[in-house]
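Below is how a single chain appears once it has passed through the pipeline. First comes the sequence as given, then the structure the pipeline wrote out for it. We keep one example in the README because the format questions we get most often are answered faster by looking than by reading.
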Amino acid sequence: MKYRRMPIEIESPEQMGYDTIKYNLTESSCADLAMSELDLDLQGLLVAYCDHRGKVELRDLIARDSGLASRDEVLMTPGAAGALFIIATTLLGPDDHLLVVRPNYATNLETPRAIGCHVDIYDLKFEEGFDIDLARLTAMLHPRTKYLSVTIPSNPTGVVWSEARLRQLIALAEDRGIKLLVDETYREMTFAGPLPVAASLSPAAISVSSLSKTYGLPGLRMGWIATKDPALQEKFLAAKEQIVICNSVVDEEISWQFLRRKAVLLPGIRREIAERFALVRQWYGAQDELEWIEPQGGVVAFPRIKPGLRVDVDRFYRVLQEQHGTFVGPGHWFEMDRRFMRIGFGWPKREHLVAGLQAISAAVRSART
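Resulting structure:
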C-alpha cells in the first residue's frame, strides 16, 4: 500500500482549526449534535467487545429501513470511509481494474491507488448535467474490471440520478459480472424522496452509508456495508476483523438508540435542509458570477465561476479566506478545476451561511481581472 494524504483531509477545518474560520462552508453534513441532544441511556452498558458484524438490533433496524431481507446483509463499519476501505482492499489487487465516476468522494480514488491497481476515471461533465453517457461508460469496462464506483446523491455536486438510471447501472454490472459500488451517504437527503437502496435491488450492488451526514454524528464513526451476496459479506467481515475486530460498543449503542427515533427526527432534518437550500437558491438567483447544476439532494452544491469570467482564481480563494474568513471546498479536493467549489449549507448557522455566500460573491468581484 502506497498511502498519500488527500488534500480534502490536509485542508479540512478540523486540521486547520475551527477557530481560524469565521464562516465555514466546507462541511458536507448537517450540523453536529451534542451528547445532551441525543436523549441517551447508557447506564449498564458493558464496555466489551461486541458482535463483529455489529449490534444485532442496529443491523435489524438498518436492514428493515433499507428494504433488505435480513440483518446478515448489513455489516457495521468505522464510518463510510472504513466501509470503502474494506471494499477496496477486499476486491482489488495490483492486477485488477476499477472504474470510478468522478467527481467522487476522495477515498473512492485514493485507496485503490494506494493498492496499486489500474484506475480509470469516467469524468462527468458540467455541460451534460453531471449525468452519465452509458455507452461511453460501458466502453471503459474490460475483463479485469472488478467494480464500478459511483455516488448517489453525489458528493460534491448534489446531483441525483433517476431510479431508472440506477437500475441501468445495476443491469450493466450484472451483465458484466462485476459489482456496482454505490456510496449512498446522502440518500435520505434526496429532496424528492430517496431512491431504493441499491443493494436491495441486486446481489451485484454494494451500498455504503453512514450516520455522519444526514444526522450530524460524524464523531461516532458509524457506517455500514449492505450486500445481498453472503460470500462477499463474509469476506468484508474478515477484512473488518483484521483491521478493527469490531466497532465501538458505545458508538453502536448510541447509534441504535438514536435511529430508533428516526421516524420522529428525520422529517425535522429534511425541513431544515429545505429551508437552508432555499437560502442558497435565493443567493444564487441574485448573483451572476457563478453557475451550477442545481442540486437535487444532500447539503452541498458545486457551482463554478463562469468560464467566460476573467478571474484570478488563486486571488479569489485568498481574498475569501483572508479578508472574509470564509472557507469552501475548492475544486482540487475533487480533482476538478479550482473554478469549482463545494459549498456546504447544512452545517453552519443560518446567519453564517448567508454571510458566507455573500462573501463568495464579494471575493469573486475582488478577483476579477
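Residues 54 and 253 are 10 Å apart (CA to CA).

See the next section for the split statistics.
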